[in-house]
Structure formats: C-alpha cells, structure tokens
Amino acid sequence: MSRPAPRTGRNRRPFKPIGRYALRVGAVAAALGLWQLLTVLDVDLWLRFSQFPTVTDVADAFADRLSGADYWRDLTDSLTRIVTGFLLAAVLGVAVGVLVARSRPAEDLLGPLLEMVRPIPAIALVPVAILLFPSNEQGIVFITFTAAFFPVLVSTRHSVRALIPVWEEAVLTMGGGRWHILGSVVLPGALPGIFGGLSVGIGVSWICVISAEMISGQYGVGYRTWQDYTIVYYPGVFVGMVTIGALGWLTSTAVELVGRRLTRWLPRTSYIPAARPTTPRTPAHARRAPAAVRTAQPSDTEEARDEHLV
Amino acid sequence: MSTSSETKPELRTVDRAPSSPRGTRLTLHATTLGRPHAPVLADVDLDIARGEILTVVGPSGCGKSTLLRSLAGLLPPLAGEIDQDGHRLAGPSAERALIFQEDALLPWRTLRANVELPLAIRRVPRSRRRVEAEEWLTRVGLADHASQLPHRVSGGQRQRAQLARALAGHPRAVLMDEPFGALDAQTRAGMQDLLVEVLRGTGATVVFVTHDVDEALFLGDRVALLGAGRLLAVRDVPHPRERTAHDDAARVALRRDVLTSLGT
C-alpha cells in the first residue's frame, strides 16, 4: 500500500538535466558575450558603454587580484563578518521569534520595541554602530546581524503561530511538558518557515555588510570595491561586484542546502517551483485533500513573506 | 493486515506494565464545557466506568470534541468538576491519551519515531523504546512501514500508527475523536475490528466520539447521545462488538431510538 517513490520535478520537465545545465551555462555565456560586444564596439546608444570595462579587462584585473594577498584578506574578512553576524541573527532571531509567538508577556514587552526598530534599514544604523562599538569590526558585524535578525524573527514568529494545535495537544496528552513541546513540536514544525527567513536574511546581510564596509571598513570586498571606485579603477570595481555575487550565491546556496536537508520530511512538491501552477501532481492516490492543502501551504506563505520583507 | 496472530505478544507487554489497575473511572459532575465565554455543553453528568467503552454520538458541532478535550484535561470545565478515580483533573496527562481524527502524527518523524515519542517523554531508555515501538507497530500491522514518514502512507495506516502511539504510552484511558471519520467504509470496518483486537487486554477505559450511529453501537458498551447543548441520554448497548448482532431485535430498536432522538 505504500506510495511509489515520488517523481522529482526534473523528470516531468521538458529538458533532461544535461540539457538544462547547458542552457544555464549558455545563458551566462550569452550575457558575457553581449557585454564584451557592447564594450569593445564602444556602443553609445543612450546607454553608454564607451567608458565601460570589457569582459577581458575585468578578467585580467581579476587574475591580477587573485595572485595578490589583499584579495584573499578582503574575502576572508567579509566572510568572517557575515558568518558571525548571520549566525548570531539566526540563533537570536529564532529564540526571540519563538518567545514572542509563544508568550504573551514577551509579546507585550518586546513586540512594540521590535516593531519600532524593524522598519529602520540596518544600514541606517551605521551612526549607532559607530557610537556603540569600540571598533569598526564589531560595528559591521552588528549591522549585518541587525539586517538578518528581523527576517528570521518575523518568519519564526509567523510559522510558530501557524503550527496546528493538534500536534501540541498530542504531546500534552502524552504527558509532555513545555520543553517537550518546544523540542518536538515547535522547533521542527517551524523549521520550514524559519529557513524561509534565513534565506531572506542571508541576502539582506550581504547588502548590509558590503554597504557597511564601503562606509567604514578596513579590508573587505565592499571596502575594496569602493576604493577602486574612488581611484576610478573600473575593472577593479567589477571584480568586486563579481566577487560579491559569487560569495552571495555560495552562502545562500549553503543556507538552502542545509534547509532542504533539515526539512526533508516535507512532502517533496514544495521545493519544485514548476509544480505549483502548471503540472498536475501525478501520484494523487492515497493522498487526501487536507494533506494536499497543507503541503502547498509552506511555499505559499513563504513567498508572501519574502515579498513583504525584501 | 492480520492482527489476530499478534495478540499474544500484546498480552505479554500489557502484563509487564507496572501499574496494574489499568482502566480508570472518569466522572463529570454538573459540568459546563467549552472555551471561556463560549460554553458548548451544559449540565453534563456522566460516570464512565473503569474499563468500559463509551461511545458518544451527536450531530456535528454538538460538543463531542469539547467533551473529549475536557476529559483529556486540555479544556478546564467552565463549571462543575471532572474527576478521575475521585481526584479532580489537573490538566492533560499521559494517563489519558487522545487520538485525533487525522494528521496528528508529527510529519517530520517516521511512524516508528512517532510511536517512540510517548516512550521518550516517559524516559524509557532508547533501546527499549525502539523495541516497544516496533512491537506496537507490529500489533497494528505496520511493521513494514516503521521507517516511513506519515505522508507516505495511507490515511488508514496513519490512524493505525496514531493508535499505536497512543497505546505505547500505556494510558489508562484512551479518548478518541472521530478517529475513523476520514476513512472509507471498508477501511473503517477493518479499523474497528483492529481497535477491538488491540484494546483487548489493555483494560483501558475508552471514550470514542463518532457521528456514525452504527459505529457507536458496534463499539460501545454504552452510547451517550449529545444534542442541543446537552447530554440527552446514555443507553446500554446489547451485544457490543459482535458483528452478527447487527440484526438483533434489541439492537435494532436501540438504533431506531438513537436516530429518533438525534432527530434524523
């Protein structure tokens, strides 16, 4: 009576995996080709590419940087800042989110404060960071932390509140106390939503760490990029941008992978974007309507949340 | 799902259970039940004997689930008193397990891990937990699905796993909230037989809520009728848990009575 292993979305899509990778690589190559063409030909049609560095200029600058020590120092500094700030935000965001969602006194005590601070863009806190912290380094970590903290907090709070009460009632009638409920119902149940917040958080963190480095950094990818801009070394600016893009992609993929691993229990379809509107789900037998509704829910709410926060 | 062959290990486990008086007596004294400021049932006086199966029927929205949640200790009575063996109920406890209509298994735990949960809460050592969980899953015919996640098995299998999970904690009362309500008729009959089979020997008191009169009359020693915000009547059922007694004259008469008083 067990259901057959569910087909992954991949098999139902028109392209085979190898074809899809070719398509992805091709798209990037085409974009680079267009860039090269526009800049080599110094195209000036309202958009002006005459001052724009070519792809090869950027590649040369990149190769130069890679062989120097500063590049790696910048990289590790930026990564250290973001990882520290983000981890702090993840731990505190989840803790405060659960607290606010589960305890009325905590909600009354912290709720208004958090709602007041939340709309302030983290990067606008630079003056506060400068006043508060003895070193620039701590200030940057603080700003990175603040950036990721609120998305994590808000999504944790929402997903804890959205937990179905039946799970908690079941654990209560097994004789479980509040720690059992926290450990076996609240945290695992809220995990899909929490990871929604973490994904948004890591993105916002990058924006803020780079901006903070531009304003007050010493070393760091953002600092270097701004330095190159002030000395009008455009290929260097582009190297910085490419680096930021690659690091951002790397870290958000890491968050995504950890999230998928920890929420493997979720019915598969929630991770296949194409399965939402177009393709009907195939093995619908043995699955009743309520289960299907709940299945679709996490991705929907997460989507709404992301829109709200970015 | 051949469960009859698994009856023997069941008896062994049950005898091993430390607290020998298995069932429990639940008494409601002039209780008003419901959420604060929203009473659903008033003036409920009910004495549920140790080890009996009491079924509760009534139209939907009549307060069947409220009654059950109150007995579980999740909803304190708004007035009156609920006693377990003469002691006032103070909140939910492992002595009174609750089985829900559906989807109460934790979806991130395998069936085995779900059944292990009440054992973990009771601080049963890890290795024992696993053995006991496997035993219960075998008893409800799910030995082959122990490592499946709940959404990978059928609705009937999920309900069997819920039953195993509830009984694994050795409760003295099992409160069931339309546990087979979402199942098709055939699965349902099979589940009723399984329930009777598995309960035999546990001695647990059972309160079984259903909107299906035939189910109520098959399972219950007594049947309680709810309606219009009150407990209408409690009737003894002739020949409970005998499939052949379906056409028994006394049973037919009772069935007619029940249907009449429920106004259908």
Automatic annotation (TrEMBL), chain A:
GO cellular component entries: plasma membrane
GO terms for biological process, alphabetical: transmembrane transport
Pfam families membership: BPD_transp_1
Domain ABC transmembrane type-1: 75-259
SUPFAM superfamilies in the cross-refs: MetI-like
Keywords of the record: Cell membrane, Membrane, Transmembrane, Transmembrane helix, Transport
Keyword Hydrolase belongs to the record: no
UniProt-listed InterPro entries: MetI-like, MetI-like_sf
Cellular location(s): Cell membrane
Stretches that traverse the bilayer: 21-38, 82-101, 113-133, 181-212, 232-258
PROSITE patterns named among the record's database cross-references: ABC_TM1
Keyword Oxidoreductase in record: no
Comp. bias intervals (Low complexity): 275-296
Region Disordered, annotated ranges: 275-310
Protein topology in the membrane: Multi-pass membrane protein
UniProt family annotation: Belongs to the binding-protein-dependent transport system permease family.
Full protein name: ABC transporter permease
UniProtKB/TrEMBL annotation, chain B:
Localization of this protein: Cell membrane
Entry keyword annotation includes Nucleotide-binding: yes
GO terms of molecular function: ATP binding; ATP hydrolysis activity
Stored SMART domains: AAA
Predominant subcellular localization, coarse grouping: membrane
Domain ABC transporter positions: 11-253
Residues covered by region (Disordered): 1-24
Domain of life assignment: Bacteria
GO cellular component, one term: plasma membrane
InterPro entries, per database record: AAA+_ATPase (IPR003593), ABC_transporter-like_ATP-bd (IPR003439), ABC_transporter-like_CS (IPR017871), ABC_transporter_ATP-bind (IPR050166), P-loop_NTPase (IPR027417)
Topology relative to the membrane: Peripheral membrane protein
Keywords: ATP-binding, Cell membrane, Membrane, Nucleotide-binding, Transport
Pfam family, one: ABC_tran
Protein name in the entry: ABC transporter ATP-binding protein
Organism: Streptomyces adustus
Lineage, opening ranks: Bacteria, Bacillati, Actinomycetota, Actinomycetes, Kitasatosporales
